[in-house]
Amino acid sequence: MTELHEVQITEEKPLLLPPSQPVPGKKHSVETPYGLVTFTVHGTPKPKRPAILTYHDVGLNHQSCFEPLFHFEDMQEIVKNFVVVHVDAPGMEEGAPLFPLGYQYPSLDQLADMIPCILQYLNAGWDWGLVSPLFLSPLPHQLSHPDTVEGLVLINIDPNAKGWMDWAAHKLSGLTSSIPEMILAHLFSQEELSGCRELIQQYREALVGAPNLSNIQLYWSSYNTRRDLNFERGGDVTLKCPVMLVVGDQAPHEDAVVECNSKLDPTQTSFLKIPGGQPQLTQPGKLTEAFKYFVQGMGYMASSCMTRLSRSRTASLSSAASGDGSQSRSRTLSQNSESGSPQQPPPAPGSGAHTMEVSC
């Protein structure tokens, strides 16, 4: 009779991760009812903490829209406390293949409906719960899926459909301007465009030379045929989670954001106005500080230290107090300060009225 011996087998290579488990820093793709959507994960899930999910504006991808903000020094304190998921709209990711002629690009509602497919993929791999806040979303995702969003930070959002006058102006503009120039006019103010700043030139060259320009044009067309979200304070259509509305004081959509603010619940909404057209590109420090106060108001990072901007502000206030007394201190903290100094941080969601202007 043959004697059996135990043989120990040692793996020469580590076992591969399950196909559904997200790999930090790697680009992932998920099939949805409306096509393939790509996203990149940075960091790993933190217990009892949501994720930060970003969605870029038209004419950009997650890198060109958010790199200045998420690479900013003080932002690293926030990033280490959350897992970050950067979503690219279909066909907008780097190296994206061109859509075939006649391809029907998803509507904004359909783009929003792709988000649950991403969450399902992430939950299958990590079982990490809800993903929020949904940062910079031109999509009505929270209206369709309110239980999956814990908070929203919306930058230069326009919740209104194009009216007849807007439609006519868009058509006329299409006869005299190229797609890249129309998108630049959507992203930046006329003052910034005419100033020929290095930043504007950089984005102009990126759009003009984009290998996926035909894809960008499809996204642009989808954006311009968006529906009206019909927000109404106290009505059935509203945002029920904490919201921070951010607008550049020179942004083309400043009036739309102000109107949006007037239609949302003031006890759940913070409104911040920051210099420039694209705050995440030109004012990452100020936006980082505002975002930090926002997540602290949601109950996270309560013991976090001040940012450099906060420390600078505190030092300035101390100096003003010692030099000019209470009169100078009152002038520095004025809501209508004409000197352009930073205002107090937005109050925490749920603590009363949050609408305020931050002129930094």
From TrEMBL:
Highest taxon above the source species: Eukaryota
Subcellular localization(s) per the UniProt record: Cytoplasm
Family: Belongs to the NDRG family.
Region (Disordered): 316-360
GO CC annotation, single: cytoplasm
Keyword field contains Cytoplasm: yes
Classification via PANTHER family: N-MYC DOWNSTREAM REGULATED
Functional summary from the UniProt entry: Contributes to the regulation of the Wnt signaling pathway. Down-regulates CTNNB1-mediated transcriptional activation of target genes. May be involved in neuron differentiation.
Name used for this protein in its record: Protein NDRG2
Alphabetic keyword roster: Cytoplasm, Developmental protein, Differentiation, Neurogenesis, Wnt signaling pathway
Presence of the UniProt keyword Metal-binding in the record: no
UniProt xrefs under Pfam families: Ndr
Biased composition (Low complexity): 316-342
Biological process according to GO: cell differentiation; nervous system development; Wnt signaling pathway
